[in-house]
Amino acid sequence: MDVHHVNLTISAVSASQYPNTQFPEIAFVGRSNVGKSSLTNVLINRNGYARTSSQPGKTQTLNFYNIEDKLFFVDVPGYGYAKTSKANREKWGHMIENYLTQRDQLKGVITLVDGRHAPTSDDVSMHDWLKYYGIDILTVATKMDKIARGKWNKQASVITKTLHLEAMEPLILFSALTRQGKNEIWQWIEGRM
Ligand code: GDP
Fold this sequence. Notes:
Helix content: 25-40%
CATH superfamily: P-loop containing nucleotide triphosphate hydrolases
CATH architecture: 3-Layer(aba) Sandwich
Structural class: alpha/beta
InterPro entries: G_ENGB_dom, GTP-bd, GTP-bd_ribosome_bio_YsxC, P-loop_NTPase, Small_GTP-bd
Function: Necessary for normal cell division and for the maintenance of normal septation.
Strand content: 15-25%
Number of domains: 1
Family: Belongs to the TRAFAC class TrmE-Era-EngA-EngB-Septin-like GTPase superfamily. EngB GTPase family.
Largest sheet: 7 strands, mixed
Shape: globular
Distance between the termini: 11 Å
Bound molecules: guanosine-5'-diphosphate
Pfam families: MMR_HSR1 (PF01926)
Low-confidence stretches: none
Order of helices and strands: EEHEEHHEHEHEH
Number of helices: 6
Radius of gyration: 16 Å
CATH class: Alpha Beta
Strand order of the largest sheet: 1-3-4-2-5-6-7
Organism: Lentilactobacillus raoultii
């Protein structure tokens, strides 16, 4: 999609504030610093539009970005501040858990992992959790420009194995610097609209 109009519609702190539309919604989740704002900005052709992830301890909000009056990107606060997935989810709060499991307009979740390393145990818990709820997941490995191309296949297989991705589960290698992967991610999103 060629994006010209983006608006931060609401930073919601409760479900009553979610947009009252039937536009499809695509959520973005990942550990803090994984490259979520950078990915969002590449997708919407902006520099520095999507704000950087909230800091630990700050109020956790769900940020709804209206894209071209056609869909919403929903920025989910970063996880990974606590060691166990249960503690993570408490930190996240019930609002986010309920949003991801119950929102009819939510058509898919893009989960980001740092392409330079094996996914962390938090990444694995998050993927397992989303999968358990039957959520349509796209895994994106970020910062691939930091890895030599000759190592991409090996790294993709480490990510596939660590997250237990099945053959049909998509994994896209992405770089915010080179924009590698941008079109494939948009294709996945447009397939859910
Ligand atoms: P967020 O906390 O998940 O929103 O992460 P940011 O998008 O703010 O990125 C965290 C840091 O990683 C920043 O210093 C970015 O410049 C850097 N970064 C993000 N994506 C990439 C990428 O694809 N390539 C490189 N080289 N750096 C990246």
